[in-house]
Design brief:
510 residues, alpha/beta, Rossmann fold, 3 domains, six-stranded parallel β-sheet, 46% helix, glucuronosyltransferase activity, UDP-glucuronosyltransferase, EC 2.4.1.17, transferase, endoplasmic reticulum
């Protein structure tokens, strides 16, 4: 599968730290774990989701049960709730995970790793792993690159036109969106420092036996950042060479769809709408009146609806099939699927784009609204807020999108862009992983600079001081010319004064 990859790399010991108890985050990392194991590398994985069957060259260290799995309500969160939850819960979970017996047992073992992968969205305390093993490390960002992570390597933020993933802005930013973008970035940076970085220092010092008083030096040593994004479903933005976009890495080759679902899809003459709110939002948390709105809206459609719903739905209309789980990407690839109704999570967005299916989004939290706004700006999606949902609004939005062929055309255009890449994202991630193992990390001077050096404030200050000095020098020269030289010019020389006095005396004698 990966024979074409250039260069030879000897088998290495690689550690993956996948600490978030969310299966969607794990699914982003899993293809690279399996791909490296298939290439002969010895892979150790710390996660909440161990493999169900043994995999050659892969060893699971299960974190299951240490912290509860993420389960979120079917409700819209505000921006402050998002930021607060990200960093406070992340710091708490990190402390519980690294202090657990299973992790401490691993740390006590006489092990070495050649490379460490970290998903570090919500806590910096996992930086203790590369510190413990004196190994280079690669960061995984499960969303488009947030500013507070890009700051580690001084990646350009460009707040004027690059939407911050969690700030609920997207597309082309107007004045208010740019203001929101800047203020929100500042908020996340502040909360990240207050509730993440400061707390993480104590955890690293205690559980990894580090004498560091700061994580700054550890952050400077990051080798690369793998980012779960791609410009087909987001803005084109500046990226340093050690920031690698691997959006779509979780999308695998199609597999057979379960027979009952495939039969439902094949027998639809008017097309199928797929409705799924992801793995973390649970159906039973949806308010009854909102559930009834979906049921009534779906009942009036001529299309069939495949609805991922974990609970019983006794009043489901005849054109609706309710399933507790579905192979989402494989289903979206079916030719009869005409529309995807979802919350706008990055994986669902990428799968919809990959298969050229337009998306009607109901954003709830995190980066979902930003993802949908970017896709809406590209003409392949439409937003509907949760509090706006009624049978009529839902039916109207679905009807407009299905009747307007432009949504499908734009979705297929984005699909062509996403597929038109030098190499698939998994192969790209493996290439750069082995590049680091062969050659070491690409060095950048940017992280070594202090903040005022990075902003060139010292250079501007020196230039300003020079200009001010020149200004005052010219003022002094002008003052000297206008005053001192003028006085000297009009004052008669001493000999002339003496001659004048002598002339006066001679005239008096006469």
């Amino acid at each position: 599968m990966f024979v074409f990859l250039a260069g030879w790399t000897k088998a290495a010991d690689v550690l993956f730290v996948a600490p978030l108890p969310a299966v969607s985050h794990y699914r982003m990392l899993e293809p690279l774990m399996l791909g490296l194991a298939e290439r002969g590398h010895r892979v150790t994985v710390l996660s909440h989701y161990p493999q169900k069957r043994p995999v050659p060259n892969l060893t699971d260290v299960s974190l299951r049960g240490i912290v509860p799995a993420y389960e979120l309500g079917f409700a819209r969160w505000n921006l402050l709730e998002d930021a607060w939850d990200t960093f406070t819960h992340g710091a708490e979970h990190c402390s519980e995970i690294v202090s657990s017996e299973v992790v401490q047992r691993l740390l006590r073992e006489d092990r070495r790793f050649d490379l460490v992968f970290l998903e570090i969205m919500d806590s910096d305390c996992y930086l203790g792993f590369p510190k413990r093993y004196s190994a280079p490390y690669v960061l995984f960002s499960s969303s488009a690159l947030p500013a507070w992570i890009g700051d580690w390597i001084r990646n350009p933020t460009e707040s004027a036109y690059v939407p911050e993933p969690f700030c609920r802005v997207g597309g082309r930013l107007d004045f208010l969106s740019r203001m929101r973008n800047v203020l929100c970035q500042g908020l996340y940076r502040f909360l990240n420092y207050l509730y993440n970085t400061r707390v993480a220092v104590d955890v690293v010092r205690e559980h990894f036996h580090s004498d560091s008083d700061t994580l700054v030096d550890l952050k400077k040593n990051v080798s690369m950042i793998f980012v779960n994004s791609f410009h087909a479903f987001g803005p084109v933005r500046p990226m340093l060479p050690n920031v690698i976009e691997i959006g779509g890495i979780h999308i695998r080759d199609p597999e057979p769809i379960p027979e009952d679902i495939e039969k439902f899809l094949n027998e639809s003459t008017e097309g199928v709408i797929v409705f799924s709110m992801g793995s973390m939002v649970k159906a039973h948390t949806l308010a009854p009146q909102k559930r009834d709105a979906f049921v009534k809206a779906f009942a009036g459609l001529r299309q069939r609806v495949l609805w991922k719903w974990e609970s019983d739905l006794p009043d489901a209309p005849p054109n609706v099939m309710v399933v507790p789980w579905l192979p989402q990407s494989d289903v979206l690839g079916h030719p009869n699927v005409k529309l995807f109704l979802a919350h706008g999570g990055i994986h669902g967005v990428m799968e919809a784009v990959h298969h050229g299916v337009p998306l009607l989004g109901i954003p709830l939290y995190a980066d979902q609204k930003g993802n949908l706004l970017n896709l809406e700006a590209a003409g392949a999606a439409r937003l509907l807020e949760l509090d706006e949902i009624t049978p009529d609004s839902l039916s109207t939005a679905i009807g407009d999108m299905l009747d307007n062929g432009g949504y499908t055309e734009n979705a297929k255009r984005l699909s062509r862009i996403m597929r038109d890449r030098p190499m698939p994202p998994l192969e790209q991630a493996i290439f750069w992983t082995e590049y680091i193992l062969r050659n070491g990390a690409p060095a950048s001077a940017a992280p070594l600079l202090r903040w005022y050096q990075h902003l060139l404030l010292d250079v501007f200050a020196a230039c300003g001081l020079f200009c001010i000095s020149i200004y005052f020098l010219f003022r002094y020269i002008k003052f000297f010319k206008d005053n001192v030289m003028k006085i000297s010019f009009f004052r008669p020389p001493p000999s002339a004064v003496d001659d004048s006095k002598q002339g006066c005396n001679d005239s008096k004698r006469k």
